[in-house]
Amino acid sequence: MRFAAWARAIIPAGNGFENSRRLAKWLVFGSATGVVAGLGAILFFGALEGATRVLLGTLAAYVPPGPVGEGAAPVSTIGRPWALPIVTTLGGLIAGALVFGLAPEAEGHGTDAAIDAIHRKNGVIRPRVVPIKLIASAITIGSGGSAGREGPAAQISAGFGSLLGRWFLRDPGDRRIAVAAGIGAGIGAIFKAPLGGAVLAAEILYVHDIEVEAIIPSLIASIVGYTVFGAWAGFGPIFGTHPSLVLGAPIQLLYYGALGIVSGAGGLLYARSFYSTVGIFERLRLPRWLKPALGGLIVGLMGIALPQIVHTGYGWVQIAMTRDGLLTLSPLVLLAIPFGKIVATSVSIGSGGSGGIFGPGMVIGGMLGAVVWRLLYGVAPGLPPDPAPFVIIGMMALFGGIAHAPLAVMLMVAEMTGTLSLLAPAMIAVAISTAIVGDQSIYFAQLLDRSYSPHHRIRLSFPMLATLRVRDAVELVPSLPASTPVAEALAELRVMGASAASVVDEGGRPLGAVERHAVERAAANGGGTVASLAIRHVVNAERTLEEALVANAQAGVHIAAVAEGHRAAGVVTSRGMLANYRRVLNDRHARSPART
């Protein structure tokens, strides 16, 4: 408390999301979240590599190819193809037993669970979810399941953000932002894309909106997380650098527009297939812990014929970026990869397996881009000589559209490929893809916009509430020590003509508020002290009326004591705050110049 008072004294106050005190607060909490995000990404990456080496490498004699920024493992055949379904089934069985036995909310893709916690659970994520998610996801992917690693990375740091919020942040809005910053830090670290990860944390919460308050905390957390992870894994882009990629000719914009159409349709197919598969597995009359094993069996059988769909698939995207690598794949296999990846991801995660859907979405989009380039190769004038621009823009367009995070995904893929030169044509493809997708989303927990968020509902219904302060609506009332007898309190309230009083401790600090009718009722029933009658809810005089109303609603009360510094300043009621709002609104309307 002394440190907090000292900090308030030396750090200047201000309004808005960029005021000095807010920045100082998030510099501390965002940095702490970023450190955990980076360490969590290291831990998960190591666990995933170990699980892959043991399960796929040792048991099935198969090492999936990797991207150039992670060692670029070469393409190899499956040494024991008959063992692949056994390995994927075993991985699903272990992951299902862990998840449904210990933390059922770790089921599926972790990003959606974190979004749900922000909107509907005041940023609360159970701590046990974090280790279960890490282990279950490493086993699911390491055994060959088709999933992304961003979901586990996001839930690790989001879980820590939730823990920080419960320990240190009294404001429910700050707890939400701490979880959002965790999402950005985890994804920014694991993909080595700090700017894209930070913007994603603000953009991914809504279909048609953005969480402005989350941008600066997420930037801080994401940069720190990226720095910690990069110090261990290196700072090079995952898919290498592509500085020579440019928009070669105006006619290419037509090709990228066509890619946007294909990506939008592919995104819709991905989302609908995923949630249809979820529905099918929910209706299956099997124990929940056994369903991921069935999903693993299906993926393993598919993988025998099409090994490109198992694991993360990032290595195959890397291969598809070069003409020589892409032309080694037959047109039929190339066409089968994105659709097979949709089915494999839907089954792996939709059955209850653990992992992300962001990574597979980028793989699907990248491979659809490769398909479009292959179809145009040798036929279309002005076509880029290599498929890399189509693969990169395909990644941006498909998932940017279906996740309703176009800006974030464009930035992320640009960071992952080391090039910003394709952003102009990418905007066309992403815009078309987003228009085709409409309100459909791959994230079920997303809300349409902030007006649907319980946290923002009052602000958007009464916008000026966010500009007025609690001190403007304070009712000046007596301050009664907590030990004051009820009879004495009633007498003072009658003398003052007050309907309520602040209840304070021996040092004069407010503990809560007591209403006159409660004092009268207690006096008629035998007395006591005001401490037993106090509604122990205190708000700061500098809080906005919007924040105070939300705090009252969440506490289930309509009155609160007001603290100004360490002293009691009076009380404030929900009715009084709304009356003050109406009074200011009427005053501003009366003073506004008439239109002529």
Description:
With 596 residues, the protein is mainly alpha-helical. It has 3 domains: 2-233, Clc chloride channel (Orthogonal Bundle); 252-452, Clc chloride channel (Orthogonal Bundle), CATH 1.10.3080; 457-591, CBS-domain (Roll). It is 59% helix and 5% strand. The protein has 23 helices and 6 strands. It has helices spanning 2-10, 20-59, 84-102, 110-120, 129-142, 150-168, 172-190, 194-203, 215-233, 252-283, 291-305, 314-320, 323-327, 331-350, 358-376, 388-402, 406-417, 423-437, 457-461, 486-496, 516-524, 545-555, 574-591; strands spanning 479-481, 500-504, 510-515, 538-540, 559-564, 567-573. The strands form 2 sheets. It has a 3-stranded mixed sheet with strand order 1-2-3. The longest helix is centred in the N-terminal third of the chain and has 40 residues, at 20-59. It is elongated, with a radius of gyration of 28 Å.
Task: Give a topology summary.
Layout: H1 2-10, H2 20-59, H3 84-102, H4 110-120, H5 129-142, H6 150-168, H7 172-190, H8 194-203, H9 215-233, H10 252-283, H11 291-305, H12 314-320, H13 323-327, H14 331-350, H15 358-376, H16 388-402, H17 406-417, H18 423-437, H19 457-461, E1 479-481, H20 486-496, E2 500-504, E3 510-515, H21 516-524, E4 538-540, H22 545-555, E5 559-564, E6 567-573, H23 574-591
Parallel strand pairs: 1-2, 4-5
Antiparallel strand pairs: 2-3, 5-6
Short description:
With 596 residues, the protein is mostly helical. The protein folds into three domains: 2-233, Clc chloride channel (Orthogonal Bundle); 252-452, Clc chloride channel (Orthogonal Bundle); 457-591, CBS-domain. The protein is built from 23 helices and six strands.
